[in-house]
Design goal:
By secondary structure, this protein is an all-alpha fold. The chain has one domain (1-46). The chain is built from two helices and no strands. The protein has helices at residues 2-14, 39-46. The protein is elongated and about 60 Å long.
Length: 47
Amino acid sequence: MKKTIALAALAALTFGAQAADFPDGKTITFVVPFAAGGPTDKVARDL
């Protein structure tokens, strides 16, 4: 009985975890709070 209730609760929680559609035509601004040319900047540019 406890397993059934736990599975039902888990199933109910997963319905709210759906991703929203990404708005087309909008750009993303990604701010890197470190100096240009460093490894963090390189990773951000690769994204």
